[in-house]
């Protein structure tokens, strides 16, 4: 929360899934006559109909963030003791602010892509060794260096660009993950076990979801306690809550895909994010009812 990207949060009329998260269709190549391949030259007497404009995303409920924001503010004001409002904030963020787990996962566009690149590298390092995995990025000279240094060298490959809020969230989550490596006992590895791979990805997805939530309903709205220990407690409670959901989602996904091939990594990551949001909504509802 204290390290989330500086951003005033989306307006209430922002579409649930921003249009810029989709990839624009590629234009077909032109033939020598200037018309797209396979298309006859235009008939002057019967000009072609203008192309249909893409549908404008529906304007979402302008108040959809208010419930989650109010609950998160109460949780922060309690210094981390009000678990009921923490649960309400998270469950309402997923169900109402985002429009459900699938929509919430779709809002993590850059973080899902970066997560897939990170998991792809970890999978390669586990299968072929760190040096060979780094050779793909012309970084084989980094083999044998502390993992934190290796990950810093990989930053532009894992999280290219930071021009949008979405890209900034992805890069911030990656940096936070690097900081956490020492605390997880992963600072000086020459290879990754499957369990260690999952720990790194779990850390990344946790930080990405936390940053997304804080940017949407926390920044410039939630007032953190002035007491440093209380503020730390609020951050830790929120992060631990999110990590619990991510951990459960990752464990379920691994049960279905214990051996992950490179062509399935993106769909695996997408499923983890969607499952994590669904679990967080359920966990939040349980907390809210206590």
From TrEMBL:
| Residue ranges of the region described as Disordered | 1-64
Pro residues: bias regions: 38-57
Name the InterPro entries for this protein.
QatB (IPR049675)
Could you tell me what this protein is called? Uncharacterized protein
Q: Which organism is it from?
A: Advenella alkanexedens
